[in-house]
Amino acid sequence: MKRVLLTGAAGTLGQAMRKALAGWAEELVLSDRVPIETLHSGESFVACDLGDFDSVVELVRGCDGIIHLGGQSIEGTFDSIMNGNLKGTYHIYEAARQLGVKRIFFASSNHVVGFHSREARLDAKSPMRPDSLYGVSKGFGELMAQYYFDKFGVESALVRIGSCLPKPLDRRMLSTWLSEGDLADLIKKVYSVNRLGCTVIYGASNNPWSWWDNRHANFVGWHPKDSSAPFEEEVFEKDAPLADDHPALLFQGGFFATAGHFEDD
Ligand code: NAI
Ligand code: 15L
Prior knowledge:
Elements: E1 3-7, H1 12-20, E2 27-32, E3 43-47, H2 53-60, E4 65-68, H3 78-99, E5 103-109, H4 133-152, E6 155-161, E7 163-164, H5 173-176, E8 177-178, H6 180-190, E9 198-203, H7 232-238, H8 255-258
Parallel strand pairs: 1-2, 1-4, 2-3, 4-5, 5-6, 6-9, 7-8
Helix pairs in contact: 1-6, 2-3, 3-4
The structure holds 1,4-dihydronicotinamide adenine dinucleotide and D-galactaro-1,5-lactone.
Residues 8, 10-14, 32-34, 49-51, 69-73, 83-84, 88, 107, 109, 161, 163-164 line the site of 1,4-dihydronicotinamide adenine dinucleotide (NAI).
C-alpha cells in the first residue's frame, strides 16, 4: 500500500492501529477532528470533520485505501450520529467514487445485529436487528457501501467489530472480544485479497463462546489468532453475573439493547 487514510485516528482503535500498522503502508494519513500532535515516521495528519464534504474530498485525494474508523462510536443523540456516521460515511464513499479509491475498510459494529438473541448463531446473511440509533447508523453505512459497490465497483469490508480492546472486560466480551492484533491482521488481509466485493465480516477473535460465523468471508483468509479463553477466570472474578432474568442477557448487544432511547433523556 502506498498512501492509506485512517479516519478516527485520535480514537481508541485509531491509536492502536497506528502502532499495529506502522511500516505497512508507505504513508498513513491520519485524520480526526481532534488534533494529533506527535507523528511518527511514515505518518501525516490532516484535521477534518467528516460532516464537511469538501474537506473529506481533499482528505481522500491521493489515497489508495481508506480505513474508516471515524465517527460516533456509542449511542448518542440523532444529531451527533447524523454528522459523523450518516453524513460522514456518505462523504467518504462519495469522495472515494469521485477520486477512484477502490477499497474501503468500514468499521461497522456488532450493534447492527444487537437485538438478536444470544441463542442465535449469526452469519453474514442474518438480518440486521440494530439495538440503538448508533446500530442503525452502522447499518446505514453497510447499505451505503453495498450501493457504492453495486453501482460503482467500490469494494468494502463491512467489519462488524465486537469489542476491541486489550483484553475482555466483562462476561459478554468473552463472546465479542477482538484483539487489536487480530484487527490489524484483518485490515492487512482486506487489502491483500485479489477480489473483496462487499463483504460482511464479524470482527471477533477466536473465542470459544462466539455467536458469529464468518464462513461467507473465508476467502479473505483471515484466521484470528487470539482467544478470550485465557481471560475467563479473571473476567468471572471481576465482573459479577447479572441476574438470570436480566434483559441485557437476552440480547447480543447487551446494554445497548436494553438502554432507554437517547432522545427521551
Ligand atoms: P472512538 O470514539 O475512540 O474514536 C472515534 C474517533 O472518531 C474519535 O477520535 C473522534 O474524534 C472521531 N470522530 C467522531 N466524529 C467525527 C467527525 N464528525 N469527524 C471526524 N472525526 C470524528 O471509537 P473507537 O473505539 O476507536 O472505534 C473506532 C470505530 O470502530 C468507530 O467507528 C466505532 O463505531 C467502531 N467500533 C468500535 C468498537 C470497539 O470495540 N472499540 C466496536 C464496534 C465498532
Ligand atoms: C461498539 O460498537 C462500541 O463502539 C464500543 O465502544 C463497544 O461498546 C462495543 O461496541 C461492544 O459492543 O462492546
